[in-house]
Amino acid sequence: MATELGENPVAPVVLDVRDLSVSYGKVEALRGINLSIRKGEIVTVIGPNGAGKTTLLSALMGLLPAKGDISYLGEHQGTDRQVEHLVRHGMTLVPERRELFGEMSVEDNLLLGAFDRYRAGHRDHLETMDQVYDIFPRLLERREQMAGTLSGGERQMLAMGRALVAKPKLLMLDEPSLGLAPLIIKEIFRTIAALTKTGVAILLVEQNARAALHVSDRAYVLETGEISLEGPSKELARDPRVIESYLGLGHRH
Amino acid sequence: MDLQIVLLLGQDGITSGAIYALLALALVLVFAVTRVIFIPQGEFVAFGALTLSSLQAGKLPGTLWLLIGLGAAVAFADISWALRHHKMRRVPLILFYNCGVPILLAGYLLAVSPATLPQPVQVALTLAMVVPIGAMIYRLAYQPIAEASVLMLLIVSVAVHVALIGLGLLFFGAEGSRTTPFTDMSFQIGDAVLQGQTVLVVVASLVLIVALYFYFERTIYGKALRATAMNRTGARLMGISANLAGRLSFMLAALIGAFSGVLIAPITTIYYDSGFLIGLKGFVGAIIGGLASYPIAAAGAILVGLLESFSSFYASAFKEVIVFTLIIPVLLWRSLTSRHVEEEE
What we know:
- The complex is a heterodimer of chains A (about 250) and B (about 350).
- With about 250 residues, chain A is an alpha/beta fold.
- Chain A folds into two domains: about 5-90 and about 170-250, P-loop containing nucleotide triphosphate hydrolases (Rossmann fold, 3-Layer(aba) Sandwich), CATH 3.40.50; about 100-165, no CATH class.
- Chain A has eleven helices and ten strands.
- In chain A, helix 3 runs parallel beside helix 7 and helix 5 (about 125-135) packs antiparallel against helix 7 (about 150-165).
- Chain B is mainly α and about 350 residues long.
- Chain B has one domain (about 5-335).
- Chain B has helices spanning about 5-35, 40-55, 60-85, 90-110, 120-140, 150-170, 195-220, 220-230, 230-235, 240-265, 275-290, 295-315, 320-325, 325-335; strands at about 185-190, 190-195.
- Chain B has a two-stranded antiparallel sheet with strand order 1-2.
- The longest helix of chain B has about 30 residues, at about 5-35.
């Protein structure tokens, strides 16, 4: 079982997925996916383009219908999982396309990250927004600027910041390094590594396998809709199959 | 043409234009958030005006029974949803908002004689009856098909429009009515007389526009509505549900409609079906703004009001023709200057 491979086997399981499958019409995009994440853990899913990584996150977030057994925070999820319900219980997704509110300021984007908590009666959004500004000082500088005018790296920071304002228990990141300059990627991954101190569980989907394996505790390799390999990231980084397909020869950290 | 006529027509045009501007804003809002082209927008104007005049005539408006009926239907739909999703905790709230409040309102109206109430209370009661109907119509007619195409939503809009016109005839009869003016003040400016009621319409419209501006710019719910209009997926991921945004935008549209109806009821005779034409002129304004830009829609609506008022003087038989012909050059210009965007599905 995957869970016994975790860094901290006593931390509670945040998400446990058994035999998940997703179909687009007659085409099965994901088959028999088993996956689990514990509190404070960074788990990564690597794999080639088109393997179904984004589909996996969309299904977990309730954006796509899925079959199988998903339990989140110890609660079994029914068949019609609703995004709003999951958001209310601390699940957040930073999608590959970021999905920012382009004609709104950075500040308003962050504020809307707290929308659901505000609606549930919490009034701590100013505090959590300040914490996000501490993590990404760049956002503080750009605070009044429209989100649509930000650079790629800033957009990713804003998308992550907006998710963090929601005080997530499970943070799912879809290709956070996509299209970013190497220096920015380093900064983003440093932030991801630091986030686990807050106890949040992170599910990271990446094509940049080297960075993802470096930052994560455990990893799954997703190929053509199925998990082909799994294990602690350090071990997978040494696995010849992973090296050949995803890390390439002669590359080192 | 002498100055006095220009001032008179201008005053008239700006008054109607202010109302069209409000309706244009409501149409842009509803379309941006829900993709619904809200044909029944004008019906809320008629319902607002006629409900107020019923109250002033000492009658119980049929609007009340519509509110109770729709409330019961919404409660039924929401409770069966709550039962399926094991959210029994929500049932008392659902019952309170959809059945309790309308019944309390009915009880109050039966207990007092509405004709003797002060005018502001009558207006408040009118809004309390008409505004929730907007959200209820969204829940019953649009929410179940929220993901449908714009065309499908438009067809439903036509159906809702026809149903409301029929109900309007049933509730208020075929005769038109006017309400008591809010003020009988008038001002002398040079040779022209400025009616207090006219000033009131323009000022109240401006106040509502400013209030809406603050709602959208300064409150988290207003921002959530704008966010939904900008990026539906992004908004869902923030927990801003399409249902919430839809109900909220329809409630605002109903508020704007009923408020406009209350404002013009003392200066125009409103019939059960007058709303459609008024709404359509707001729609021309909204089209000038491409169903997307609030300021251009508002300016377009003022232009429609002025055009209507001047053409009713110079070519009164062609008044409507001239107003609606305005849409042709606008559409031509828009289709030539804007890139065609496929409907996102």
